[in-house]
């Protein structure tokens, strides 16, 4: 096997893994988590009726039931809607959500049978910028969906989401500048590698950036408490009011995958990526006897740790979603422009100062 | 007399700590997550460790697999109580008929060979009953009580909601809990 | 491989540009313009200028075009009779593609011509954040600062304009 086909094979396997992980595991699981976690938090039982031959698997089958139901539902396009844009919008929503994963490393670099395996689809120098660029494209999904539906509620939802997502995009970029200064790189791969040492995890020096970033990211994803574009008490369902069947499920998938993406980004930037605290991948390889076997085991452990950390952050996001009430629209905008933006600027300044004075040794 | 000026505090009444929002978010998360923790623990106790239904902190029932426990104070369908011989205790005095606000009880009295009075027919129109329990209170013989029956009170066919004496007869054992309850102090204290 | 990618992106960008001019709905035009931006970003990325590519998507496609769309949606523009009036869409799309097919080689001849060694920077740092950043803050510091002051002036101007309007109304 020459190295060209080897690289190609590696890339295909990695892409398949990431897409499979997102669409096959996280998207359906999040449907379940959203139902069950909220239920347990609110002293309820939650969805538990879907079952096969009487086995309900604690409600796990509801996601499958949803998928089957929505696939066979009528795909409805309202009269007067722009058919092409109406169909395009959910695609625009889903694709960026998945694409952002391309630059997130989900495991370390290993040497396997003389072949260097780097567990990231695209090792970009501008990884973080790529993520933000991709996230900015996701705005169009909501905006175009709102516009193309020929419905006042959708339109309002689309307008709201345009303004909100745009505002928080700007702010989100600024929130992590401090972190970028700390790690001196925009590449997520480099940032991940620099967190081998537990004391270099982003959360330790950069915890204000974490809070700001998480807030912006949740707002960017239009989830409660920032879900004004789809506020059901005001706008029916906002920009996807007129969507049904598969297109509706695509919007939901996009939202769930964005939850995963946010978690993955937070893990990569603040929680030591795929590293176990105090144990470096090299140590893992040598613990498991070195060689190919050790590399594979260390690789699997790295992926497992990464996924486990993502799950923990998803839990946090879900807890926030089911704890806080929705903001008013003006509060959302005021929070973004008047609080988080100045706060992140101040944090950039403080980080710069601390680095200059040597209080925060850069990695 | 000088006019008293009362100063009204305006504002949202929040302290600076609460206004800064973040601590309050964390407090809110603490509340919901503590609920999550206790509920998870109780679910694990119940289903994984087999400690049974009582350890569950979630009040929701897995209906219909689990049936609710009806407390004795519940007023379900009014039923007639029979004595040891399976004969109704009712003496057709007509007090319940008179007490019933929507007038859904219709009694036709009669006399047995030994001189006892008994209801020749006792019809209770379940479609009109408001489950007030006044019949139970009026009855001098504890012959009609409110049972804990709550199923099939509603029917698509109204004629099926008109109960004859035979369908209303219950043994004392079946309504023992309710009998104990109406004999207890709490019942009479609440009423009088 | 890269030539193929280039042709795909080039044809895509030119078609999107034509669609933008010709389509009769303002929103369609805006979306086509986003397509142009994305294709251009792809072209930048092909030239190893990853930073410019990411910024192109982030700033133009992600931010500016969203605002353009926002304004279009707010104004609720009526359909104007554009050139592409949907009578014979297939013929028109075909014409666009054909035009591209004719144009692309011409353009590509010009663009793909061997760049005669104008070594702008060290090839190792070319297009990276570090390379661009260093150049911005050393060699091109003055233009950079002037541009930022210009933008700041525009920002202040926008605020002043909107404020004035509010006062005269109130
Ligand atoms: S419960 Fe009330 S309404 Fe029903 S039969 Fe008795 S007295 Fe009548
Ligand atoms: S009050 Fe009691 S005894 Fe009298 S008629 Fe009614 S049920 Fe019978």
At a glance:
The complex is a heterotrimer of chains A (363), B (192) and C (170). Chain A is mostly helical and 363 residues long. Chain A contains 13 helices and 2 strands.
Poorly predicted runs of chain C = 113-119
Largest interface, counted with CB-CB under 8 A?
A: A-C, 32 and 25 residues
In the predicted model, the low-confidence regions of chain A spanning at least 5 consecutive residues are none
| Rg of chain C computed from alpha carbons, rounded to a whole number of angstroms | 20 Å
Helix and strand content put the structural class of chain C at mainly alpha
Strand order of the largest sheet of chain A: 1-2
- The string of secondary-structure elements of chain C, in order, is HHHHHH
What proportion of the residues of chain A is helical, as a percent range? 55-70%
Please identify which CATH superfamily of chain C we are dealing with: NADH-ubiquinone/plastoquinone oxidoreductase chain 6, subunit NuoJ
Give helix % range of chain C: over 70%
Description:
The complex is a heterotrimer of chains A (about 375), B (about 190) and C (about 170). Chain A has about 375 residues and is mostly helical. Chain A has helices at about 5-40, 60-70, 85-100, 125-150, 150-175, 175-185, 190-195, 200-220, 230-235, 245-270, 280-285, 290-320, 330-355; strands spanning about 110, 115-120. Helices cover about 65% and strands about 0% of the residues of chain A. In chain A, α1 packs across α2. The model of chain A has no long low-confidence stretch (mean pLDDT about 80). The relative contact order of chain B is 0.13. Chain B has about 190 residues and is of the alpha+beta class. Helix content of chain B is about 30%, strand content about 15%. Chain B has 2 domains: about 15-55, no CATH class; about 80-185, Alpha-Beta Plaits (2-Layer Sandwich), CATH 3.30.70.3270. Chain C has a single domain (about 1-110, about 120-170), classed as Four Helix Bundle (Hemerythrin (Met), subunit A) (Up-down Bundle), CATH 1.20.120.1200. The interface of A and C includes residues 124, 125, 136, 163 and 166 of A. The complex binds iron/sulfur cluster (2 copies). One iron/sulfur cluster (SF4) binds near residues 92, 94, 139, 141 and 144 of chain B.
């Amino acid at each position: 096997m020459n190295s060209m086909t080897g690289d190609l094979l590696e890339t295909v396997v990695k892409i398949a893994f990431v897409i499979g992980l997102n669409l096959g595991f996280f998207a359906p699981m999040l449907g379940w988590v959203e139902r069950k976690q909220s239920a347990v938090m609110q002293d309820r039982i939650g969805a538990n009726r879907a079952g096969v031959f009487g086995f309900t698997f604690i409600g796990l089958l509801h996601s499958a039931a949803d998928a089957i139901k929505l696939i066979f539902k009528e795909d409805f396009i309202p009269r007067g809607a722009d058919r092409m844009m109406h169909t395009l919008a959910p695609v625009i929503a889903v694709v960026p959500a998945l694409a952002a994963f391309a630059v997130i490393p989900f495991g370390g670099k290993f040497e396997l049978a003389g072949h260097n395996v780097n567990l990231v689809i695209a090792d970009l120098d501008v990884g973080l910028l790529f993520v933000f660029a991709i996230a900015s494209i996701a705005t169009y999904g909501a905006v175009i969906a709102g516009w193309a539906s020929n419905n006042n509620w959708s339109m309002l939802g689309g307008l709201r989401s345009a303004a909100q997502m745009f505002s928080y995009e700007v702010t989100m970029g600024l929130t992590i500048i401090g972190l970028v200064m700390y790690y001196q790189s925009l590449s997520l791969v480099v940032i991940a590698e620099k967190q081998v040492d537990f004391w270099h995890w982003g959360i330790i020096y950069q915890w204000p950036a974490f809070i700001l970033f998480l807030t912006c990211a949740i707002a960017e994803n239009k989830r409660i408490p920032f879900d004004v574009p789809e506020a059901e008490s005001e706008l029916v369902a906002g920009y996807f009011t007129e969507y049904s069947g598969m297109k509706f499920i695509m919007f939901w998938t996009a939202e769930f995958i964005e939850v995963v993406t946010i978690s993955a980004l937070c893990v990569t930037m603040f929680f030591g990526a795929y590293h176990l605290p105090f144990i470096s991948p090299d140590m893992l390889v040598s613990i498991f006897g070195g060689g190919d076997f050790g590399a594979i085991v260390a690789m699997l452990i790295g992926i497992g740790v990464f996924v486990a950390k993502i799950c923990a952050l998803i839990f946090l996001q879900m807890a926030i979603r089911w704890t806080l009430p929705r903001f008013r629209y003006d509060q959302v905008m005021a929070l973004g422009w008047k609080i988080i933006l100045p706060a992140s600027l101040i944090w950039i300044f403080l980080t710069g100062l601390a680095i200059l004075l040597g209080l925060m040794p850069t990695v | 007399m000088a006019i008293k000026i009362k100063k009204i505090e305006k504002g949202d009444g929040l302290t600076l700590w609460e206004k800064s929002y973040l601590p309050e978010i964390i407090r809110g998360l603490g509340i919901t997550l503590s609920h999550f923790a206790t509920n998870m623990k109780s679910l694990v106790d119940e289903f994984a460790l087999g400690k049974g239904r009582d350890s569950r902190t979630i009040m929701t029932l897995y209906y219909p697999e689990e049936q609710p426990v009806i407390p004795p104070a519940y007023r379900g369908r009014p039923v007639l109580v029979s004595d040891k011989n399976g004969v109704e205790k009712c003496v057709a005095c007509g007090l319940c008929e008179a007490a019933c606000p929507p007038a859904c009880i219709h009694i036709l009295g009669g006399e047995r060979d030994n001189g006892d009075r008994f209801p020749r027919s006792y019809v209770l129109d379940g479609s009109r009953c408001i489950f007030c329990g006044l019949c139970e209170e009026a009855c001098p013989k504890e012959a009609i009580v409110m049972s804990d029956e709550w199923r099939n009170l509603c029917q698509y066919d109204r004629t099926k909601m008109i109960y004859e004496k035979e369908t209303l007869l219950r043994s004392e054992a079946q309504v023992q809990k309710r009998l104990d309850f109406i004999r207890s102090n709490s019942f009479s204290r609440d009423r009088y | 491989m890269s030539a193929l990618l280039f042709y795909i992106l080039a044809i895509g960008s030119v078609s999107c540009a034509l669609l933008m001019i010709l389509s009769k709905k303002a929103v369609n035009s805006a979306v086509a313009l986003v397509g142009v931006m994305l294709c251009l970003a792809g072209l930048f990325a092909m030239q190893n200028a990853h930073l410019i590519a990411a910024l192109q998507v982030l700033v133009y496609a992600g931010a500016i075009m969203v605002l353009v769309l926002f304004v279009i949606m707010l104004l609720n523009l009526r359909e104007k009779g554009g050139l592409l009036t949907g009578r014979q869409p297939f013929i028109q799309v075909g014409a666009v593609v054909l035009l591209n097919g004719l144009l692309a080689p011409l353009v590509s001849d010009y663009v793909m011509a061997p760049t005669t060694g104008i070594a702008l920077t060290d090839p190792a740092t070319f297009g990276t954040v570090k390379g661009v950043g260093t150049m911005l803050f050393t060699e091109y510091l003055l233009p950079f600062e002037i541009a930022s002051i210009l933008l700041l002036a525009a920002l202040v101007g926008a605020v002043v304009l909107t404020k004035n309007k509010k006062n005269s109304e109130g």
